Amino acid sequence: MKELIRSSVVVTGIRGAGIVLQSLILLFLARSLPVHELGIFALFYAGFGIVRILGPLGTDQVTMRQVAVAEGIPDGALHRILNTSFVLVAGVNAVIAAAAFGLVSLAFPWVFEATGLSVAELLLIIASAPAFALIGLMTYQLRGFGYNALAQFPDSVALQLFIGGGVAGLAYAGRLDLPSTLFVLVAAAWLVAAIYLVIRLRIGVDTGARPTWMSTRCLIGESREVLYALSITALSARLPLLLSAPLLGSAATAIFDVASRFGSVPSITTSAVAVAFSPRFAALAHSSDRAAMSRTLSFASLVAVSPAIAYFGVAAAAAPFLIDHVLPPAYAHIYLPMLVVCAALTVNAAFGVTSNFLFMAGESRVVRNFSIAQLAGIGILTPLFAWQFGTLGLAVAVLAGSVIRDVGMAVWASRRFGVTLPPFGLGRLSRPRIQETGGLVQDGP
Cα 134 to chain center, whole Å? Predict the structure, then answer.
């Protein structure tokens, strides 16, 4: 446990540094760009965030689990799988990017007028999709090898340093606008992807183990359920932001994006805990040690939720002063939406580690089903609450979705695996229900 705590603290520190840099960049852009342009930038940023999660096609989770089970010493077959995932992700995302550009150009020509982008500029931006997808893939694979800090630093810190440096340079030259800011974002993504590629080569991944048709088929088959679950999860997390523009306008999108960024700070520790504990979850999921499973899940939950609760208190007390003295007047009403988003992320910190455990246990179907319920809830509630309460309604929909998914999965996992509902399983162990055949009772969707 001490090693897991140490890893969580290191990754939390790296992610925290990245969040600080990201916040400074966001504040600078909020003071430099018109609010509607920042809203458009937020939509592009959210879109690339989806690509980063879904672009790996589920192979990131699968290959991380395989490397972790192999204890970071892959054989020739696993090297081939790693290379297969790289080629598959790069190729598929390039094709999807080309199709997306064609669709936008032919079916949605108004996008060029709304964003101020030329055809060539939009092509360059959309063509960066493989970079974001490869970042997501290689981050998870490095975690499987046990390089948690090395996996996190380029994504969290280097990316923001590149973006911040580019934005500062543009501002100094008097050329900061929406198109140039988007160019900085995609250029930074390609630089970070190149860094990950160098790291991948340096840790000894054998590039000579070429992909085969069989390895590709096997990888796609194993990754399919993971991709389904991640697709719904990623869409659910970003649906309120994506709907904010058609429902309330791009200015409201910018306001909700700022509120969400600062309200999502608890995700720092949640993600760090997921990074540190996932290899351990993979090992425990294939064992019969229910006591260790229960303790580890609850311990991970407590490590994640304690800082989240502390941040909620600090944000509730300090945010009004910062909003009044740092942000432009257009963002004066982000306080309540920010607190509600923070509450949603606190719920996620307490119960959300269960989803990582279920992925490592091969129960991606369950994650998918609860994510579908979350997506349905958010899809129904977002328009109703947004029309009634504006950006605050968007935040309430996020909170409702977190309760549906995260609490629901934690309850299901506690029944399925016979463990105490995290984070309450450190002191005692619930008794698994046993069938007459001797197997555990299968509950849930």
Answer: 14
